Amino acid sequence: MEAARVERPAGWPGAPLAGTGLLLLWTWVLAGAEITWGPTGGSGRLGAPASGPPALPLLSLRAVASQWPGEPMAARRTAAPGRWPRGGEMQAEARGTSPPGAPWVRGAPAPAKRGGARRSRRAQSPSALELGDTRATATAEGAKGSRPLAQGRREEVRATRTGGPAAEELRLPSTSFALTGDSAHNQAMVHWSGHNSSVILILTKLYDFNLGSVTESSLWRSTDYGATYEKLNDKVGLKTVLSYLYVNPTNKRKIMLLSDPEMESSILISSDEGATYQKYRLTFYIQSLLFHPKQEDWVLAYSLDQKLYSSMDFGRRWQVVHERITPHRFYWSVAGLDKEADLVHMEVRTADGYAHYLTCRIQECAETTRSGPFARSIDISSLVVQDEYIFIQVTTGGRASYYVSYRREAFAQIKLPKYSLPKDMHIISTDENQVFAAVQEWNQNDTYNLYISDTRGIYFTLAMENIKSSRGLMGNIIIELYEVAGVKGIFLANKKVDEQVKTYITYNKGRDWRLLQAPDSDLRGSPVHCLLPFCSLHLHLQLSENPYSSGRISSKETAPGLVVATGNIGPELSYTDIGVFISSDGGNTWRQIFDEEYNVWFLDWGGALVAMKHTPLPVRHLWVSFDEGRSWDKYGFTPLPLFVDGALVEAGVDTHIITVFGHFSLRSEWQLVKVDYNSIFSRRCTKEDYQTWHLLNQGEPCVMGERKIFKKRKPGAQCALGRDYSGSVVSEPCVCADWDFECDYGYERHGESQCVPAFWYNPASPSKDCSLGQSYLNSTGYRRIVSNNCTDGLRDKYSAKAQLCPGKAPRGLHVVTNDGRLVAEQGHNATFIILMEEGDLQRTNIQLDFGDGIAVSYANFSSIEDGIKHVYKSAGIFQVTAYAENNLGSDSAVLFLHVVCPVEHVHLRVPFVAIRNKEVNISAIVWPSQPGTLTYFWWFGNSTKPLITLDSSISFTFRAEGTNTLTVQVAAGNALIQDTKDIAVHEYFQSQLLSFSPNLDYHNPDIPEWRLDIGSVIKRALVKVTGVPEDQILVAVFPGLPTSAELFILPPKNLTERRKGHGGDLEQIVETLFNALNQNLVQFELKPGVQVIVYVTQLTLAPLVDASAGHSSSAVLMLLSVVFVGLAVFLIYKFKRKIPWINIYAQVQHDKEQEMIGSVSQSENAPKITLSDFTEPEELMDKELDTRVIGGIAAIANSENTKEIPNCTSV
């Protein structure tokens, strides 16, 4: 997760998981407007807004701030913030996290209108009509010179029709109020209490970008829905400069104001919707606030010095909860999941730079009362607590692992498909007991793959590949995925296909996707010739960062099936030739309503739509539609053209008010226009004004396992729904069909419905929790889509089947330290974690030998889930051995622990096959290379003492046939790195290079696990085609590209058969294998649609090595190749000093056979040191080594001839 290194702007409500991270999206509700945060970037860290709601978003001339506080909701998720208005340039705010966002700056030049949008002259479309009107009014306004209305005065416009020679104009009742004296203020925060409250609060301020602070502020309050405002500066203190306005999400009558910390550190509190205030001095500077989701008086405050404070009386008194808290990584308890309401989840950093996940109660957060739900250290900025889930990230060996806790259960490692290998990961959604994650894999740069989980958030399957991503205004990551509100299961995604971006829709949470059918006709009524899949409708899926605009796409829970979006018709998504489209049936069919960009708001439960042109020019008209955009009426809402900065639709359903913010000129005061659209509704709706509509998926009535019938107002009915409208839905379950099931973890879809195991997955392996005598659910390869309500039908066929646990011997035993390091400090706890890939956790005995004469035993794994702690009393290298055994078998694992001798990554280069009693060249390649001398520890088999050298290569002779294990550890200062390889040792063998069809290179992540799995797949294919015994074939895939491998033909294990045939017994096998390979009979399927062919490469790396006197003709040819290769090596060695780019050290040995991998030979004078060779100080002096101990492994360096040898390795 080192790929995405974009720091999240301070206070941005969602941070990805460290290194790749996981991205979390939040939806906020304020003043009746649903405000959805887009995903944010940042070192790939898993994230969520810990400090929300921060402060109200900033509003300024021709633009508004990008963030809005409020309570988190689960209405809709997207990863694409919007872009309206565009009248100013976004400037990053220099100060801290609150308000987390960047204000728009007054006086900034307005950007030119994007693209050349098509223009329509249809009477119903406002596009053409508005153009002439705007030009005329703009000219008139410029000629007259607009003057702001005086303070306390308001201009009132009643609903009238103004006649003229051409036509009458419809007018909406409106009042305009000028915030006199604030013309210099360049930022504003607006709060509408909503819920039938008539109170509006506005904080305007002058933010000096040079000083990075607020120098002036004004607080305004209205009690009549914005018709008039009162200035409250005298009530908060004439000299008090306010910086932020906070609103309690559970009781919006309670307001908090923060003073600018450059002037003073104080907080002002109101409990009567801002009518009166109490001022309290603070001893710290607040950077962000987090209100409790249930208790209205409980608040957490994060200070500039990274301390967390709590208040139980709404900010009147504060106390320290904890220090060294990671920014935005603290969370209140979740009701129903956490036992105590005052519990806080925190990410705390220790003095040594590591992070830990801790929980404690705010009144009892002492050392003895804190708990660590996760025993190991975690990556910094990776803790996310969201709904039922807690996510963390742990990076070991340069590779990130993700863990999840569902409903506060023990953490489990997240299981992505084995070779997804994420370099960046973001949590998109945790709605409906399921996790949506966007993963950027190792071979992706500007796209992400969408994965969806099971209910527990552990097992993820692929839903869509190559979803488009981009950077937002603040550097945040944008994933172009949109969930349609009001109807579950419907998502829109922009997918990159052959360098083109196309929009797809799904009705079953990503199981099936299809392109959007373009409208049948355009705005002029002319037919649209657009044939799938070459032409379709494409949409911009960015939600607005700005709560005062509708964004490029919009849908509402209160208006199911209604979707309004900006887009274009053609072969791909365009950013120039765009219009606005609407769907009334959940995305099945679409109609174009504008040929330019407009902001469209939903009024009165979606029964009416209000549109305002997206333009840098001043406007004075709104457009209203009662028939879902089929026709529009033009209404004037202000007597003078207004440069619109934003609009806010109030939360109530009876008041029917829109507040428009703007300026009559770039130097005028803020103008607040209250528009009352109640008069456009002629009456209350009756039963005859409603109709029903059926949700369909390409004509199929079952969506997410249900038939749904919705009730909505008839198009054209100009009546108001009112408060008691229920929007009732009638649904009934459907019979389960194929489209109600997705492929389970480890399975991939072939064709339309068949799910087959991936090449890396073994479906016959039960869970480790499955104990002998118990039963488990064995997957059929399918799982019903989460939240799908289908019944009967194929449900039984595809449901997992109960089977008895077969009982398995321990396999894949691993022993690691809790922090993933191979170093521990003397006298401190070293915590060991024992992991087992297969086996019976409840019936397997565990023994752990710490290597210092102390060992412990456990009856099963249940008692060691949190790790095994041990304190080493002396420094050195200790062989820690874990041993697992049950009645079916045993397994063991070894860890070599350096106590106070820290280390980092190394690649061990060894032959895959070696000849018994013949020297083998072995080398260790450190990456990245480090300056200075390195110390190498070579461990052979079960030896308890290593061979220690200062050279990166050695020569070694294996005396016994079979599989030999070699481990190398490299020490550099306080860093220790390790690699382990297995070498097959035989009396003789043959080998041949293999190559593959080019399509394999695209899927090669170039990691050891992948090479091992591919080697096994090739081996099975060879055995299947030729019938050659499995134990006589070994396939080793080489690192790097293009992908290549070496095929080894080994002698039989049976000694009797070997004596009969000796070296010649391999010739027939070689001929059989070559015939199959030359006829292209050896193939394997990597994934659906990817067939890989295995070929023979003519160049032979290793000749037949035989102990007999006679050689075949092929052996003679191979021997000649050895001579030429030996000559080449000699020439390189001879002249290597004259060729500056050659860095090869080799030694020609005529008495030794050529090895399979060109490795570095051990020179004659290279030191070979064992532990016993330097345990006494006198011996070190004899070698003229000046030793200086540095805490753990010693660093010895004083001259060119001085070598570094550690002196803390005695055991």
UniProtKB/TrEMBL annotation:
Its main location: other. SUPFAM superfamilies: Oligoxyloglucan reducing end-specific cellobiohydrolase, PKD domain. Residues 69-165 are annotated as: Disordered. InterPro entries: Ig-like_fold (IPR013783), PKD_dom (IPR000601), PKD_dom_sf (IPR035986), Sortilin_C (IPR031777), Sortilin_N (IPR031778), VPS10 (IPR006581), VPS10-sortilin (IPR050310), WD40/YVTN_repeat-like_dom_sf (IPR015943). It is found in: Postsynaptic density; Synaptic cell membrane. Pfam families: PKD, Sortilin-Vps10, Sortilin_C. It comes from the Eukaryota. The chain crosses the membrane at residues 1115-1133. Belongs to the VPS10-related sortilin family. SORCS subfamily. This is VPS10 domain-containing receptor SorCS3. It comes from Heterocephalus glaber. The lineage of its organism: Eukaryota, Metazoa, Chordata, Craniata, Vertebrata.
